[in-house]
Specification:
195 residues, mainly alpha
Length: 195
């Protein structure tokens, strides 16, 4: 179901654009294969199945708009949720911790989160909850969308154009992308459990 080629063949441009938008910030797309999907879209464009001149601007806009909506969701709902008395799920002190985290690491988080599954969905929401300066958020949201949505798509496109018989290598490359995107959270978890 989450095979990038099948997803693109089944849902086309509209499905691809919606997935990137959903994964970037509306909290329902955290399970979607964004990294491999972008690379595959670029590869398919190199083979003539999609058009790169359509992909690049709209994928950038969808990634940017998704994170922007995520920020807005966090800004609007965060204070309401975290102002409640302490409960099983929500603790008011987490708002203060989130604000401090984004003051210290905000810029780096917004850009790097793009390349980490699940984190890319929740980082913009937490930036909104943490009241990260919106102008700063917008600038680094654009940089992150450019690096992630445009960068991975162009990488797939160049791969398809310059590697002979590239279609033979697409599956191992997709597996490598998935493993690379899962490596940081696994490393962090192992490091934390090793303490």
């Amino acid at each position: 179901m989450l095979d990038p080629v099948s997803l693109i063949e089944t849902f086309g441009y509209v499905g691809l654009f919606f997935i990137i938008f959903a994964e970037s910030g509306i909290l329902i797309g955290f399970f979607l294969p964004g990294d491999s999907l972008l690379f595959t879209a670029g590869f398919l464009a190199s083979q003539g199945y999609l058009r790169i001149e359509i992909l690049i601007p709209i994928l950038f806009l969808m990634a940017f708009a998704g994170d922007s909506l995520g920020y807005l969701i966090g800004k609007i709902t965060g204070p309401k949720i975290f102002s409640r008395p302490k409960s099983f799920w929500f603790h008011p002190e987490n708002v203060q911790k989130t604000e401090q985290f984004f003051e210290r690491y905000g810029v780096k988080t917004i850009i790097l989160a793009r390349f980490i599954p699940v984190v890319r969905t929740f980082a913009p929401v937490m930036a909104g909850v943490g009241k990260m300066n919106y102008r700063t958020f917008v600038i680094y949201n654009a940089v992150g969308a450019l690096a992630w949505a445009v960068g991975l798509t162009l990488l797939g496109y160049l791969f398809g154009n310059f590697i002979p018989n590239a279609d033979k290598y697409i599956l191992p490359i997709i597996v490598l992308i998935i493993l690379a995107s899962l490596a940081p959270p696994i490393w962090h978890m192992l490091k934390r459990n090793g303490r």
